[in-house]
Amino acid sequence: PENQIRIVERARSAGASAKFAGSGGAILGAYPDDATFERLCANLETIGCRVIRPMIAAPAV
Asked: Per-domain residue ranges for the chain?
């Protein structure tokens, strides 16, 4: 799928790792620092994609 390839290429060009998630439109990725995350968001926003950053919380006690 051409659109999915473009998403991965844009993420990688920002300096992030990126891989298809297998869901038909989402990718998974990792980035080394906040500057890369900002580039990632900017690159993907230009093609109509949203980026989410999950926050992992400690278990409740």
From this structure: 2-45
